[in-house]
Write a structure and sequence with these properties.
Blueprint: H1 23-32, E1 50-51, E2 61-62, H2 67-77
Antiparallel strand pairs: 1-2
Length: 87
């Protein structure tokens, strides 16, 4: 990912938050500048975040894409959650 670091350079700001051909990677690099060694993840959900038509798991409009994934992941990490109930 470091080969894309130059794409963050800006003539007017410390960093820019837009990229060319690798915008997902640029977004991750941008966020990585602010975590100071803390483990983190970048989930690029911009593409499926809005539905133009009714879908089986989401109404037309904002989809909430990725919310169930994050809730389930955090639920499984919660203290007191037994391995048996983790599915």
């Amino acid at each position: 990912m470091r080969e894309y670091r130059d794409d963050l350079k800006s003539p007017v700001a410390d960093l820019k938050n837009v990229g060319g051909d690798a915008s997902t990677i640029i977004g991750a690099l941008f966020l990585g500048e602010f975590v100071d060694g803390i483990p983190w993840a970048h989930l690029d959900i911009a593409g499926p975040a809005f539905a133009d038509k009714e879908l089986p798991l989401a109404p037309r409009g904002a989809t909430g894409y990725g919310v169930r994934l994050l809730v389930e992941y955090l639920r499984r990490l919660a203290p007191g959650t037994s391995q048996a109930s983790r599915g």
